[in-house]
Protein 1
Amino acid sequence: MLDRIKDFASGFFVTGDPLIYGADVAIVLTMIAVVAVLSYFKKWGWLWKEWLTSVDHKKIGIMYIIAALLMLFRGGVDALLMRTQLVMPDNDFLKPEHYNEIFTTHGVIMILFMAMPLMFGLFNIAVPLQIGARDVAFPFLNSLSFWLFFMGAMLFNLSFVIGGSPNGGWLAYPPLTEKMFSPGVGQDFYIWGIQISGIGSLMTGINFIITILKMRAPGMKLMKMPMFSWSVLASSLTIILAFPILTVTLALLFLDRFLGAHFFSLDAGGNPMMYINLIWMWGHPEVYIVVLPAFGIFSEVVSTFSKKKLFGYKSMVFALMSISVVSFFTWAHHFFTMGSGADVNAFFAVSTMIIAIPTGVKIFNWLLTMYKGKISFKLPMLWTMAFIPCFVIGGMTGVLLSVAPADFQFHNSYFLIAHFHQVLIGGVAFGYFAGLYYWWPKMFGFTLNEKLGKWAFWLWNIGFYVCFMPQYLLGLMGMTRRYSTYGWDTGWFGLNLVSTIGGFLMGIGFLFQVWQILHSIRFMQKDKTGDPWDGRTLEWSIPSPAPMYNFATEPRVGEVDDWWEEKQRLAAGQAPQPKPALEPIHMPKNSGIPIIKAACWFVAGFGFVFDWLWLAIPGLVGVAVCMLAHSFNYDTDYYIPVDEIKRTEAAARRGV
Amino acid sequence: MSQQPHSHGINDGSHESHGSLKSYIIGFVLSLVLTVIPLVAVLNDMVNGNAALVVLLVTAVLQFIVQLVFFMHLREEKKPRWNLMALILGIVIVLTIVLGSVWIMEYNNIV
Amino acid sequence: MANHGNEAAAVHHGHGHDHGHEGHHDLEALRQMGFWLFLITDCILFGTLFATYIVLHHNTAGGPTASELFEMPGVIAETFILLTSSFTSGLAVLSMNRGDRKGLIGWLIVTAILGASFIGLELSEFIKMVGDGAKISTSAFLSGFFTLVGTHGLHVSVGLCWMIALMIQLSRRGITPVTRRKVNIISLYWHFLDVVWIFVFTIVYMMGVM
């Protein structure tokens, strides 16, 4: 009996690597510490009532951001492990199979469990406040989306210590990822982790489209909406059109592995190239999903810190919306080398070049907004200014890659790696950092230390170029991605060494950001105005952090940048707009169903990973029970009485 | 919160758009006819090859439109017609997925 | 879109908007529009399954082909049953709009019975195929077939459970703004499943035996 347990455990837990044992210990210690702290301070009830069951968009946004920053840490550690392995030729710091796992988890985590939740966090924080709404359209669904993301991410990360990590690359191409070649459970963790969080992303997309289309404050016509909200609309639209494709593709791969179907296998008529075709139909729009909101953030930041109206509002809207649709017609440029014939390659090369045009338009809009503006170089603006050259270079190497014949040389080389890191770090990560710094005071009611932030900024930026510029050269010299090591005779040593140094500079930059946050919490500089940047849009017209109902009375909007215009009117001595009388506010009740339902999905997913139907079926039954419980529950909302609104508003104003 | 959707002249809240028994019956009869036509034509070999494909696809698309109009009352939406726009975009993407895959995979059939 | 019936809007939301045309558009209308977007995503889900089926359907790998396998009488019966149930779900909405709760529940029961017989026929078709050695693991063609048709069947089955839950709620609570929205949504869902079936019938079955 004991032997059988031992036998099971040695297969169940990941063993044999000191790095992983270290991580095991760290995970257990952290969990014990968290439980101990919560129990000692008797905070379990508070955690459950105020956070885990909350349907408040602001709290959900904060939870997304915390989770995303944790995932940034994990993905970053993966990156630095890879750079350490590649620092010199013939290095044996990581075994090849371990290296495969690390580049797989790095990619998946950074895109799906870091960029996506950070983006959703900012959606949640900013959009309802910007458009003058009291919450998103479907607060319950919003909470469910978050918990599905969270449980999916946890399931994926669990593979690190239980069962073994996936090692088939971030998009898991078959036939490598078929049962025949990847018999372990890592690939199943991949499928279920992404599948569960993907359902959440899809629902978030629906939620924000409806929120933006139907819940804007009276008077805010679509063409008077803040640009970030426009970018969220564009991104959400792309989400709802693209994510179903991912759901199906992963489901088909799962059927191949679980039921022995033959969609992507090499035998019985399957065709692995169909997988590549399908996954990029999601994968290409996905990069626009994450980058469009960053464009929205830059637009807000540039306009606010240049004290000017955004240049070319209409062209910006047009650029955002056209990118969100055209992004569906370029997917095949990810596999020019697959052999689809000259007409296919020509079509997708041209469509890829076309999509660069609206992107270029935006760059000019931002530059012309800054032109003759009174620019203040606060952190959000710094990140925006760093973004522009970085993204221009990344975009132009992208156009080089879009030339199909040339791509036969660049394909899967470090040239490609450098290109997409340049647009994803220079575009997406810099954008979300700018957004995080910009809305931080609105989230928490205090600003972040500028000096430490500047250290982090320069470390990240210098580190970025030191890390990735050499990789373009390495690519041209013939170094292919996913090599776990290389020989002395390749001549790649020097550039790899430089690249690794750059990677670690960015790592130190991240540590500075953590320090910055901790330092700012300790020596808190409260933002008492609610409007620390002299902002332009509605979120800056209310106290920081926003009261739970956001707006005591519904704002009425007359023009673009309404809050800025209102401030100009006040400064000119005009009377403030009269506010309607307070009325009771209708609010949704918190609910424990989302977290329980997502946990049931986790259980079901874990069961499917190990082919344990005795676990998977109860998990699915749990999901169904949660759905029914929600359907039969008619007690879902309440009113905040006027007295309470008055008290809250008075307290907020005392702070001012 | 949320309980305060601001409308901008939308499709709902209307009292007149219920669909009527008549429209449901017309829709049902048309659907029946459009199902019977391909059955009779194709299963009895009245048309073959590409002509049969055309008959099948045309009747299917017509029936799709019939159901949208008579069962789902798509015409009754008020402006701005978000639902119609979303539907058109969805159809464009579906066609892209199907036709794009067929086009690309035509070269890659390894069987 | 189901614009059917939205006196739903009459639901009281405690803070009278006094600004003109605003304010009648309540949560239930929002939910209906959200559901429409969900159906669009479902369209894309089925579109992807159709694409996969179309690309792989010649790859029978020595197994049975479409024309050897499909038995049209059963499929034709399924088609007419589902079409009729789409019609009866519309009649349920009409009864609801007349305020006729009994009629509403009655037509929903008819719809559910038709839906259940559709599922029964489909299951017996699948069981027979598997019995004849045409399994999901036999060939790429059959993997695509079972997944596409099975996903549609799964949708119908989920709709059935949902319809039963809704009938219980209707008998307990009557026709309220909330249950009204739920009936509108499920009838929309049901019409949508019939539309998907039109294409399954045309592309998978008719073109398969042609």
Protein 2
Amino acid sequence: MLTNIISISLGAILINNFIFSQFLGCCPFLGCSSKVDTATGMGLAVVFVMGLASAICWVVDTYILVPLGLAFLETLAFILVIAALVQFVEMFLKKSVPSLYSALGIYLPLITTNCAVLGVVLLNVQNHYSFIESVVYGITGGIGFMLAIVLFASVRERIQFSDYPECFEGFPICLVSAGLLALAFMGFSGMSVFG
Amino acid sequence: MNIKKQFKEGLITNNPVLVQLIGMCATMAITTTLFNGVGMGLSVLIILTCCNVVVSALRKIIPNEIRLAIFVVIIAGFVTIVDLLLQAFIPALSESLGVFIPLIVVNCIIIGRAEAFCQKNTVGASFFDGIFQGLGYTCVLIIMCVVREFLGSGRFGGGLIDIANGFRFTLDGTGGGIQIFPADYGASILNLPFGGFLTLGTLIAVMQYALKKSAKKKELAEKEAAEAAEKEVEE
């Protein structure tokens, strides 16, 4: 059980990093990574929402959709759960932790359309994870996302001062440097955890 | 009418991936074989066109405050339909695209077009917008696939084209493609995630270069025309 959890977490954070090897959540990864501060905020919000969404969607899938034979509605049900969850978290933070709420700002509602969140929930179902495994996969997947976005934001802050062809200005140079980071993360891919 | 203009916008000047810079996750993830690229592009084209038509038909009924939730439900409905159809009729494609088919729900292209175009335009215009934007997306996917496959493994049309028993198209993903040079000489790094980032980055850079150049040309032509007009006035 424990080894299983450790192997899921290491896999989600390093070996099969959500951004660098599965390409989930690239839009916010490229959109919100111009400063380290906002990247950290976004990363924290994603960890939180991915963990919660994994838990709730597992319950919805196992106790509502599957018994009723509605498994084909998974995509529809999950995106609604995620949208409602994000809205709820937003309201809750606004009332009880206003400092975190203002730090996250616009990024919180944008998480609804982050494909890492919907992706982790769908992968949980595909891999037949148990409740605990789903939550662990959600949280560690979020941590992997956060690691990636914070690392990339620090790289981007330096790109501003470097010299590159004019036509690569803006997005292209970011994509190329993200590719180099992905290449670095490839180094983990040979690792196998506990067989 | 302005169908021509819409065509040009969707494919070039307002291309969803290369100019609007949206919907990039799937673009980088699945463009490893032509089979995947064409399949994904056409799925998005169909879903986008259907959603555009429905959203623009309902644009006067949908309350403004909850429009995004309604868009998402409409999109998720069509995505589920396409997902189930693919599972039933082209299982190989469904298997190889995996989680990226249901993830079309959160593909920014579709919700972006619903928000930016269909809300303000007629059903007909939205229909063509869906087709042309979808075509623009498909073209980018195809270019990415062709480049990555050719440089990565020296092949063209992997999964889609079968030349073992004469030239034919396959829908079960078994076609070996046309081997142009031996796979051992390919830069297999392009088949890795790194290749996705690099190819898309370069493609966008080329696009930026071309758009800038054509804008400059236009500016120059306008300047010349203005100078000529001035000269005429002087004379």
